[in-house]
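ok so dumb question maybe but i'm new to this and my supervisor (M.) told me to 'just get the structure for Solute carrier family 35 member C2' and walked off. so i did the thing. is this what she meant?? sequence i used:
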Amino acid sequence: MGRWALDVAFVWKAVLTLGLVLLYYCFSIGITFYNKWLTKSFHFPLFMTMLHLAVIFLFSALSRALVQCSSHRARVVLSWTDYLRRVAPTALATALDVGLSNWSFLYITVSLYTMTKSSAVLFILIFSLIFKLEELRAALVLVVLLIAGGLFMFTYKSTQFNMEGFALVLGASFIGGIRWTLTQILLQKAELGLQNPIDTMFHLQPLMFLGLFPLFAVFEGLHLSTSEKIFRFQDTGLLLRVLGSLFLGGILAFGLGFSEFLLVSRTSSLTLSIAGIFKEVCTLLLAAHLLGDQISLLNWLGFALCLSGISLHVALKALHSRGDGGPKPSKGLGSSPDLELLLRNSQQEEDDNEEDEYFVAQGQL
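this is what came out, is it supposed to look like this??
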């Protein structure tokens, strides 16, 4: 009877993990293709990103209110001093990362975007070394060389290469390295109480919106104000369809962050990292099949080389976590790692300790 119960528990956990991975894939791959599709007809990616931020803030605030009503515990609210001094740098870097990523969809294919965005791991490693979050080791140098070499091979003589779009997404990856490093530092400050990603998203979105607004005003403000799709609309139905499409993208963006949190809180950050590797493969295969992206043998070899570097990095992190017993983040006010409405039952002690790693396990929103 005991053996049967263990088998049932194992099967149930495997099914649950698979379901959470598929949910994560739906949101992550879905928003990539959705944003690419939307920018073909709506050429204002910065405005689109700002609307997504507003939707994420709205759903984050709603989630916090529901959790607070359910648990009768106050959620963390930062003082203006901490908010501006400690959250603002992370928010600005995140806004630029997401904004430039969406901007690049105007020029490049999904496959080139996916491959180049994977290089964020490279910059995360570099900035982790600069901020002394990682120690320089020969294995890390090998990871950097594999990812950089793979990126070069993928873009070398690519038939659908666009320098402007490549520069935008590479810049986003570079800023993403700063973003995730600052995010890790932010989450490790236990006194701020932002270990729960819903609280983090709630506090980041307003500053991200303000940080992205000057870039929007310079590059899209005038064009958007004269566009018949938004401000000078003549067809109310068209306006509602455009706003509905943008709102749906915001829901996907919120769902991506939330599905990442669900996956890592019920499994581990290692599971999210491994799932992210296979997600890149799925994205490239879908881009080649559905969108007709042209990928040569050399490009595939470069992608394989880059994935091997990312896989090595994931394996090193796993060994490091096993060696030191895993990270032990402190818990702050109102930041229990459960999102009580959904994860009230059967939350394991060791899974709690993985929560603050989920931000740095994946180099995109």
